[in-house]
Amino acid sequence: MQAEATASPMPKKKDKYNEALALYGKAIDHRARFPDAYRQQGIIFLEAGDAEHAEEKVAMAMKQYLEAHVAKAVAVDFLKDMQTRSQKAGPKFRNLNKMVQETLTQVNK
Q: What value does the mean pLDDT take over residues 80-98?
């Protein structure tokens, strides 16, 4: 008699993304002003290739960071990270990159 495998298979990346998005969604439901949750959702959508949702979530994170008057260094680090990620993600994320660049220019004034 063969022994059955007891270890469950590793969840696929898509499953992990969906689980993380659901958890960040719950965090946002609990506390609407949560720019870090929007930021992480934006990163997930960016990595998944979903430009529309990535733009939406990153825009909300940028708005909330700026409304909260976070330290300039925090805002610049966030924006530079998003700029690098959107550039690496390719032409599909051109609008996101442009939006981040414009905001970065405003923050650096």
A: 95
Q: What is the DSSP string of 30-74?
A: H-S--HHHHHHHHHHHHHHT-HHHHHHHHHHHHHHHHHTT--HHH
Q: Is 10 helix (H, G, I), strand (E, B) or coil?
A: coil
Residue 12 in 3-state DSSP? coil
SS3 of residue 90 by DSSP: coil
pLDDT score, position 11: 58
* Amino acid code (one letter) for 68: A
Distances in Å between the Cα of 92 and the Cα atoms of 28, 51, 97, 98, 103 are 27, 7, 10, 12, 19
Q: Count other Cβ atoms within 10 Å, centred on residue 84.
A: 12
Judge whether 21 and 38 are in contact, CB under 8 Å: no
What angle is formed at CA 33 by the lines to CA 92 and CA 22, rounded to 5 degrees? 60
